[in-house]
Amino acid sequence: MSTTPALEKRLLTIDDYHAMIAAGIPHYWVVNLQEHQLEVYAQPAKGRYKLRQIYLLDETVEIASFGIEVEVEKLLGSA
């Protein structure tokens, strides 16, 4: 896969990943436009996120800590 300079600036490096875990960031989301899905990483422990969940266009993600639900299609737009 080739990337453009603008895209390369937005990609996480392994150092970014480890810094997020070390900072105690409990979860992060990757809006994957190429695959038309949302990737949710959670439960940081021992230098990695233990949980990875994939949500497709027709699914809804619950953000329990905020008491809201998000429709994946609204994040990604129409496929």
Summarize the structure.
The chain has 79 residues and is an alpha+beta fold.
Question: Overview of this structure, please?
Answer:
The protein has 79 residues and is an alpha+beta fold. The protein has one domain (5-76). The chain has helices at 5-10, 14-22, 72-76, and strands spanning 27-32, 37-45, 48-56, 60-63, 68-71. Strands 1-2-3 form a three-stranded antiparallel β-sheet. The chain has a two-stranded antiparallel sheet with strand order 4-5. Strand 4 and strand 5 (68-71) form a beta hairpin. The two termini are 20 Å apart.
- Count every helix, treating DSSP H or I runs of 4 or more residues as helices: 3
Strand order of the largest sheet: 1-2-3
Shape: globular
How would a crystallographer describe the biggest sheet? 3 strands, antiparallel
Low-confidence stretches: none
The SSE order reads HHEEEEEH
Helical proportion, percent range:
25-40%
Beta fraction of the residues? 35-45%
**Arithmetic mean of pLDDT:** 82
Total domains, how many?
1
Rg (CA only): 14 Å
Structural class: alpha+beta
Distance between the termini: 20 Å
Structure summary, number of beta strands? 5
Topology:
Layout lengths: L4 H6 L3 H9 L4 E6 L4 E9 L2 E9 L3 E4 L4 E4 H5 L3
Antiparallel strand pairs: 1-2, 2-3, 4-5
Features:
single chain; 79 residues; alpha+beta; three-stranded antiparallel beta sheet; two-stranded antiparallel ribbon
